[in-house]
Structure formats: structure tokens, C-alpha cells
Amino acid sequence: MSGYDDRDGKIWLDGQLVDWRDAKVHVLTHALHYASSVFEGERCYSGKIFKSREHSERLIQSGRLIDFEIPYTVDEIEAAKEATLKANGVTDAYVRAFAWRGAGEDMGVASARNPVRMAVAVWSWGNYYGDAKMKGAKLDIAKWRRPDPATAPSQAKAAGLYMIATMSKHAAEAKGCSDAMMMDYRGYVAEATGANIFFVKDGAVHTPTPDAFLNGITRQTVIGMLKDKGIEVIERHIMPDELEGFEQCWLTGTAAEVTPVGQIGDYNFEVGALTREIAEDYEKLVRS
Predict the structure, then answer these.
(1) Predicted confidence (pLDDT) per residue in 122-176, tens digit
(2) How far is CA 247 from each of CA 104, 129, 191, 222, 259, rounded to the nearest angstrom?
(3) 132 Cβ neighbours under 8 A, 6+ residues apart
(4) Is the N end or the C end of the chain the one with fewer CB atoms within 10 Å?
(5) What is the 3-state secondary structure (H, E, C) of 9-32?
């Protein structure tokens, strides 16, 4: 497959659909130097983007959290996503909407005079973790930690927060793992590099409190599904040494969907009935 910069199709850029290969920015774009960028990852199933408006609302909020206003309303962002899907003739796709500070009068840390730009791209994307979706992903334990919310805006889906995620995932892949589990600044279990994490013990589900990492839309959806089934969901701080006592584990995210975990470091988990049930129920929900 060709690179993401060399494909046929259309990308929505600043209000216009342009040829895929012409969707370019200048090398002095502020976001390229200072990470002034936010994004959303969404999935379209049979022509319908799951939780689309929630993603558009979060994109705008993420921009505000890193101190810029996206110059489009939720309705305009929704229309842009639909136009991009239609222009590319796809009904099952990954949708990437993103916004950033562009090139302008400022080329230092401050960039208030630079325009905020936005784009939407869509493409076909299968299972984020490949065959791990069936047999359970193998995770490394990252050396990098999610920062204190007083250090970085943890509820923004901001590009800069993914730098340590990229490094952690590269290190994991070098060890033959699919991903890495990250701790937060206090040493509590946080999340994977791009997905939230859940554990099962004695019929209850435990998941880290999202006070230092993104409270994912898929995470919130799965918690609602579990509660509707009458399953106890306990959101709390989880210490790493508790991993030994958990029976099952899974990851959630727009790209990951619901992916079972079979191993984290030296700890092993069963790809059990509840994990498979939630994965199947989520698959039905997004296509309903």
C-alpha cells in the first residue's frame, strides 16, 4: 500500500474538498514545531459515524483546552465529515478530523496571530491490533508516564500528549508486543498508548479513574453497556501489583473498539466470556 501522502481520493481542508495529494501545509506551520494540534479518531459503520456529534464537540473543546478556537461549528464539522465520506465513496471507514495552528505572522512559542486550520480525512482501516482482536493483545509496560493534569491538559485529545505514547508503542513493538500499558504520574495504572483499559475480577469490572488521561468516548459507551447489563463497574485508582489478581482485561477506543488483552508484562489474562460478550455487543451497537 502507498503512503498516507500518496493516495487517490479527497480530503476536506479549510472548507474545501481537495485532491488527497494536494492537502499540504507549509514547513513553518506552528503545529509542526510546537504541537498546537488536536484531533479526533472516529469510525463510520455502514454509512453512519458512531457518536459523531460527541466527537465533533470534543474536537472543539480540545482546541479550547490548548488555547485556540476552531473556526467551525459542530454542524459545520458534521457536514465536513459527511462530505468527505461521500467524496471518497466509502461507508465503512476511519475518520480523522483535526485542527491546528497554521503558518502565519508568528513563529515562536506564542502564535495568537496565526490562523487555525482544519481538515478531515477518511480511509479504510481494519482491526487496529490485527489478530489480537481474537486471541488477545500482548502489552509491554511503558517507562513513560501520563503527566499530572497540572502539567498538561489531560482531557484534550491533543497531539503533544501522544509523543510519549509513540515512544512507548515503538518500544513495545520492538519486543514483539502490540502496545504498551502506561502508568500515570503517581504510578497508578492509566491506559494503553491510544486506548482505555478495563479489568475483570470476581464478576465486577475495574477501570482506572480518568483524572490524568482522556476519558474516551468508547470507554464511556462500554461503561454504560456494562451497567445496563447489571454488571458492577468500579472506577478507581489501580496499582500495578493488582494486575496479578485480575482475570480478564480488554482495551477500548475508536480504533481499538473492544480488544481483549492476553498479557501485560509478566501477567496473563483469560480472553473470557465477559470480554467476548462486550466485544460482540459493542460490534452490534455500532452497526445498529
Answers:
(1) 999 887 777 766 789 999 999 999 999 999 999 999 999 999 999 999 999 999 9
(2) 53, 21, 17, 18, 15
(3) 138, 178, 259, 260, 262
(4) N
(5) CEEEECCEEEEHHHCCCCCCCHHH
| E strand residue ranges, the chain | 10-13, 16-19, 37-45, 48-49, 93-101, 116-123, 137-146, 179-184, 189-192, 196-201, 204-208, 233-236, 248-253, 257-264, 267-268
Domain covering 10-123, topology? D-amino Acid Aminotransferase; Chain A, domain 1 (3.30.470)
- For 38-55, write each residue's pLDDT tens digit: 999 999 999 999 999 999
Domain boundaries, the chain: 10-123, 132-286
Cell numbers 459542530 correspond to: 74
| 235 bridge partner residues | 207
pTM: 0.96
Place of cell 481474537: 134
Nine-digit cell at 254? 475508536
According to DSSP, the β-strands at 48-49 and 189-192 are: unpaired
**Residue 158: helix, strand or coil by DSSP?**
strand
- Phi, then psi, of 20 in degrees rounded to 5: -50, -50
Amino acid present at 166: T
Fold of 132-286: D-amino Acid Aminotransferase; Chain A, domain 2 (3.20.10)
Helical ranges in 46-125 per DSSP H: 52-65, 74-88
Distances, alpha carbon 278 to alpha carbons 69, 84, 123, in Å: 37, 31, 26
Residue numbers annotated as active site = 157
Report yes or no: 194 and 166 within 8 Å, Cβ to Cβ: no
Is residue 152 within 8 Å of 161, Cβ to Cβ?
Answer: yes
